[in-house]
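Thread: Newbie trying to understand structure tokens

Hi all, I'm a second-year student working on a class project, and my supervisor (Dr. K.) asked me to get a predicted structure for one chain before our next meeting. I've only ever worked with sequences, so writing a 3D structure as a token string is new to me. If someone could post the tokens and maybe explain what I'm looking at, I'd be very grateful. Here's the chain:
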Amino acid sequence: AMRVNVERQSFDVQVTGDPEAPAILLLHGFPQSSHCWRGVLPHLTGFQVIAPDQRGYSPDARPQDVEDYRIPHLVADALGILDALGIERAHVVGHDWGASVAWQLGARHPSRVRTLTALSVPHPRAFMSALSTDPDQRAKSLYMREFAGEGYDQVLLADNAAGLRGMFGGLPAVDVEHVVDRAREPGALAAWLRWYAAQRREDLADTPAVDVPTLHVWSDQDVALGLAGTLATAEWVTGPYRLEVLAGVSHWIPEQAADTVGPLIAEHCA
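---
Reply by user tm_fold:
Sure, no problem. This is what the structure looks like when written as tokens:
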């Protein structure tokens, strides 16, 4: 991984492929890192692929203040990484929290985004409407309040990280152990959880519709994200839009369905 400086933060960024080729920016979710894309990368030949460890995940981009994890800062990090690498426009792909950042890039900075691929997470306005009207989504999102609570990192790390391990049903041990090892670095998991503590309605409530070509991938065994927000997303994309539903796949799409989603991403970006 190379180091990329953006203002006062220094990000660990994996950069692979042809520097002259079109760029794909891969934005991971919680509690992952750029490691989550390892099964997807072999499908993205013919591109320059940029996979950062985002704010809180890169050890030298780990501020202490919750306010520093509000979504505009996370979006600015992604743009700053592209700027530092001299990339004017990129295909943007995000999973989980990384998809939340990706939607903001597509909605608010379309001149920087060639195409958008959102894994698991709907357009923020679709998600907010599902939260207010759909009992299923409300129930699925209850965990967010716990995750935002002070000291919840210690709850997840207790008993040999039983709580953290329990999130990853069916994932290969190598992926789970990678996350657990990183989560045990002093202050790491607490920083990752600040993404939840920093959520503000006002940062999302005015998110515009997205006009760039958009691929939305949702898996029907996702414990966190339901069908209502997924289906409502079409209302918030004015550009070409495609929804792909992965049957029998959990929330962990990049790891569990790399051989399905990798070719989908490559095709969308071509």
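A couple of things are worth pointing out once you decode it. The longest strand covers residues 241-250. The chain is about 40% helix and 20% strand. Feel free to ask follow-ups in this thread.
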